[in-house]
TrEMBL record:
Sections of the chain in a coiled coil: none
Top-level taxonomy: Bacteria, Bacillati, Actinomycetota, Actinomycetes, Streptosporangiales
Biological process (GO), any one: alkanesulfonate catabolic process
The organism's place on the tree of life at top rank: Bacteria
Pfam families: Bac_luciferase
Keywords: Flavoprotein, FMN, Monooxygenase, Oxidoreductase
Gene3D superfamilies: Luciferase-like domain
The Luciferase-like domain, residue ranges: 20-266
GO MF: alkanesulfonate monooxygenase activity
Name this protein carries in UniProt: Probable F420-dependent oxidoreductase, Rv2161c family
């Protein structure tokens, strides 16, 4: 492997469970440290009682406390863009089926305009049935098909031209959504099911991963390549953006490069000393430790 091939992995910083002032401080610090972009997570609300299984917990039950800080990622991205100049932003991932596509198209187009095109839309179907129910959504069991209908519709709405639609899940007379993005908004799709990977292959510019081991990622990347070949999209530009479960090491980074990972998604709890809770992240410690770890990822 040549040196050029070893030094082109981009670094993205994931910023879940942080208050608004923490998002601002870490976004500015990330830009100063040479991070390409930050990823913002999404839960519209946290049900007090839920039994839905978390799909990426490695078999462990998930705790999502009601006091967890979860600023709206689209609002946050627009605000953080005003405090930075080159940093990109993405949702990782937005639970798109909770939104109407016309409203979502408007929100994303506005974020794109306010950030100068520095926004990527990462979407998924979510896992928390009780969140859907709290918002009066009865489509949890059909949420994958809802998202399949939404993704090409969003691209049509972003043209700024009148769009009418009559689908299985949404129907409306001709409407126009403006401002239209000045450039295409990249779409990333998350999820590891066969349906999610087919969705990604058919509609997306890239795949975004969550809490996976290197071995799990190897299988996902192989299945994704197969899905893209079956969809006839294997020659379309495509990016794999993911992190790993556990400690960031040179060996693991090398393994991700061998798999074709383009961007490493760094979790804040992987920076500095190990801590007991991901819901109590010391922003000062992360800011101080970030540059060294970013340099490791970029040059390992």
């Amino acid at each position: 492997m040549t040196l050029a091939a070893r030094t082109n992995m981009k670094v993205w910083l994931s910023l879940p469970f942080l208050p608004a002032d923490g998002l601002l401080r870490l976004s500015v610090a990330a830009e100063d440290a040479g991070v390409t972009g930050v990823a913002l997570s999404d839960h519209v609300c946290v049900p007090i009682d839920f039994s839905s299984p978390y799909p990426y917990g490695g078999g462990k039950p998930v705790a999502l406390p009601p006091e967890a800080e979860l600023p709206d990622p689209l609002v946050a991205a627009a605000g953080l863009a005003s405090a930075t100049t080159g940093l990109r932003f993405m949702t990782a991932v937005l639970i798109a089926p909770l939104r109407h596509p016309v409203l979502l198209a408007k929100q994303v187009a506005t974020v794109s305009a306010m950030s100068g095109g520095r926004f990527d839309l990462g979407v998924g179907v979510g896992w928390l049935r009780e969140e859907y129910e709290a918002l009066g959504q009865s489509n949890f069991d059909d949420r994958g098909r809802v998202l399949n209908e939404m993704l090409p519709l969003l691209r049509r709405l972003w043209t700024g031209e009148p769009v009418a639609h009559d689908g299985d899940h949404f129907s409306f007379e001709a409407v126009a959504v403006n401002p239209a993005p000045q450039a295409d908004v990249p779409i990333f799709v998350g999820g590891t099911s066969n349906a999610a990977l087919r969705r990604c292959a058919a509609f997306a510019d890239g795949w975004v991963g969550a809490n996976h081991s290197v071995e799990e990622l190897a299988g996902i990347v192989g299945r994704l390549a197969k899905a893209r070949a079956e969809a006839g999209t294997e020659d379309r530009p495509f990016e794999i953006r993911t992190g790993i479960r556990g400690t960031v090491t040179r060996d693991r980074l090398d393994a991700l490069r061998e798999l074709g990972v383009d961007s490493f998604l760094l979790a804040p709890w992987q920076i500095g000393e190990r801590r007991e809770s991901i819901y109590d992240l010391p922003v000062n410690v992360i800011v101080d430790a970030l540059p060294e770890l970013v340099e490791l990822i970029r040059t390992a």
